[in-house]
Every structure is written in structure tokens, then in C-alpha cells.
Amino acid sequence: xxxxxxxxxxxxxxxxxxxxxxxxxxxxxxxxxxxxxxxxxxxxxxxxxxxxxxxxxxxxxxxxxxxxxxxxxxxxxxxxxxxxxxxxxxxxxxxxxxxxxxxxxxxxxxxxxxxxxxxxxxxxxxxxxxxxxxxxxxxxxxxxxxxxxxxxxxxxxxxxxxxxxxxxxxxxxxxxxxxxxxxxxxxxxxxxxxxxxxxxxxxxxxxxxxxxxxxxxxxxxxxxxxxxxxxxxxxxxxxxxxxxxxxxxxxxxxxxxxxxxxxxxxxxxxxxxxxxxxxxxxxxxxxxxxxxxxxxxxxxxxxxxxxxxxxxxxxxxxxxxxxxxxxxxxxxxxxxxxxxxxxxxxxxxxxxxxxxxxxxxxxxxxxxxxxxxxxxxxxxxxxxxxxxxxxxxxxxxxxxxxxxxxxxxxxxxxxxxxxxxxxxxxxxxxxxxxxxxxxxxxxxxxxxxxxxxxxxxxxxxxxxxxxxxxxxxxxxxxxxxxxxxxxxxxx
Length: 491
Description:
Blueprint: H1 3-6, E1 10-14, H2 35-42, E2 44-51, H3 57-66, H4 70-73, H5 94-100, E3 104-109, E4 124-127, H6 139-146, H7 177-191, E5 198-203, H8 215-218, H9 234-247, H10 261-291, E6 298-303, H11 323-326, E7 327-328, E8 330-333, E9 340-347, H12 351-358, E10 382-387, E11 390-395, E12 398-403, E13 408-412, H13 430-451, H14 486-489
Parallel strand pairs: 1-5, 1-6, 2-9, 3-4, 3-5
Antiparallel strand pairs: 2-7, 2-8, 6-8, 10-11, 11-12, 12-13
Helix pairs in contact: 7-10
């Protein structure tokens, strides 16, 4: 069926892992080789400032999946996941709601669910998990085994240690995980019956570290042509020891105590090469969409869960609230979507109400996110976030962050986009800091209360019950319903 017949579009959602916005051509990166992504942006809506306020893989994905903040859903670190009885608590994922509404739903690639093969509402899953999770026997592992190969840790690759994680994959192009994901997405599109709209999420494992393109693609990017990294700051030097310690863990097994300019340039070049592979993969799926006559009925979204420092402030990966870690691409294109650059600030989790709106559904009233299909608000949004490293708030391009250990940063993102001048102790900025602190505290309390509402006790009667009526909580041997949700209370 077509969009004209159903009134609802297909949804194709690309989400690479750990891709910052300013390494794409459409966001101004002249060194990038991203023609397919750039072309998608040129024919759709490009959001200049999209933030991932939970800049860690699993917290970002849990928030996006359920339309809840990390304080509400309790997922603030990679070693946590949504509660198994979330549905009984009234917490539903967008794929399960779309499935119930008549969509064929499928996820391909990395989702980072726990357990790794959980459905979380997708009717079909084709799995290629994180490149560092080599022990997972997912579908990509089965594919490699059919070729007589297996998943390998980056430390086994040429250049891994001497280049601070910038290494060379020994796999040929047709076995690269991102292109394999593209092929699986194309296969899903080709074998569909076409009687119902589809929602297909493609999670590319790249450009997440290890920065491991094959040599022929790495050769397309000269480290000397990479933009120089942002300079270290007093605050980044305070935060850096935690990252050094974290990266020494077995999942990375690297020591960034010394991170030279040459290594940073190499990392940035290999990161760009992985983004080029993602672009090739996106192009492969979009070509199939055209070939199958589905483009006119499909809304296409391109975003990422968080960014990567790739040498900025002598850091790698994410976790902290500086822009290289939290500013991600957001592109929406397709039928009925205007071509424009949106200057208002949005968040990754705004995709939750967006997907529901596309399917003709409504997000719950207390969802703290807004559909990207709505007009830009008249007033600047207040964007808050939390991880196990601290909290952040941004309003009107002014960003405050509070970190574990006491470090506080305040930056004017218009005047100082590189976040080099900390205004937290500047007397001229104390009123701004107080206002942001107050708003952040209000948000924290509200979200924590929402995160514990399954414990709610509703009084059935506030006064003396009438004879013969159910006394509810006022009677003896009352059985407390748990978990409580407004949804179950209405049944």
C-alpha cells in the first residue's frame, strides 16, 4: 500500500553509533566524504543544533526508545537497562506502539539492548552489536563464521596501540559490518509483502571506536588535512583522568595518558574514513528504496546516539557534556517535509513523539519531548540531561554542566562554541548561572518523581467509607497494587 492509501508513511531510521555532527559535509566539514548523507540533508530538514543530553550509548538509546529521560527510566550508565516490567508501569517503546498500530517493524544492526537479542517491540531483529562486544554470537558473527572468520578485538589489528585506537580492519569491503547492515536492510525491503507500512531502524556500529577502516578507505583521508582538535582546558584536564582510567578497561585496553598530536590526527582521519563507510551504506539502502518505488512513501531520519571527542581536549569517545560529545546530526526528509535549516535546539529523544505522530499516535501527555514535525517554538527550549558523570542544562545557547567531583562549567555557546572560557565563576554571569541552576534542580526533582511513580499509592477514599462499599486502602488487609500506573488504574 502507498502512503496515499494508508495515510501513514513508511519510516526509515538510520542511526550510526558515536557520530558527531561537524564531521559531516552537510554540517560544514569540507574534509568529509559524505555525499549520500549530504544529499539527504539537501532535500529535507536539517537541524543545526540537536543535542544528545545522555551522551553514552545505552542511556541515549533507552531515552530514545521510550521517550523518557535518563532520570525517569533510571538508565544512566552502559551497565544498566530498562526494567523488565516497564510495560506494566505504562512505559512503552515506540517500535511496540507502532507494531500495535499496524506497522511492520524491524531493526538491523546495533541496538545495545539487554539482553542483546531482546525485541523491545520490534517484530524482527537482525543483529550486529557493538564492534567491541566480540563474544556476542549475533547474526553478523554467524555471517563471518560462514566466511571462515570471526569477530576480533581492535587490539589484534595493525596500528591499534601505536595510533591510539586508529587501526586497520583486515576485512574486505563486502564484509565490513556497516555495509553488511545495509545489505540486511535492503533484504528486508525486498522481501516485504507491502500490505502494511514499515518502520525500519538501521543501527550502524560505526564510527564508534575502534577506528578501524580497511586500508584502502583509510587512504582516502590524510591525517594532515584533518581539522586541529580543540585545545585542552582547565576543566577538561580535571575530567580527563577518569576517561584515561575508563579506557584502560578490557573493552578498549588503551592508555591515553599520552595522546600526541600525531595520534589525534590519525584518529580523526580513521574516524572520517568510518563515516565514509556509513555514507556508502546509507547510499546503498536509499538506492534500494528508489529501485523498489518506496521513496515517495517513506520518511527518512538520520541521527546518532552521541558524538565523539576524537582528540578534542585530549579526549576520545563521549561521557562529558561538551559539544563534540553531545551535538549530533538530525536530518528528516521525505514526503511533506519542507527543505529548510532549523536553528532551534532539539534533542535526539524528540524522535519518540515524532515517530508516534507519523504513525497517527499521540505520546503520553507528560512526555518531555516534542515532535520534530512541529513548528519551532517561540521561546527557546530548556534541554536537560543526566548520566553517571553528572548533569547538564542548556537554554538559549547557554550551557551549564555539573560533574561528579565538583567541576562546574558554564559556556556561552554562541560566543565560545569551542567551550574554552568557563564563565561559572565570572561575576557578570552569576544571575545566568543561578537561573540555570534553579531550572536544573526543578527538572531533576520532577524527573525523579516521574521515575518512581510505579510506587504511587492512590487513596480510594479520603473520608469514612459508606456501608457496603469497598473501603480500599482504608480497610483491613488491603492489597497494594504494584507496579502502579495510570494505565493499569483505568482498566
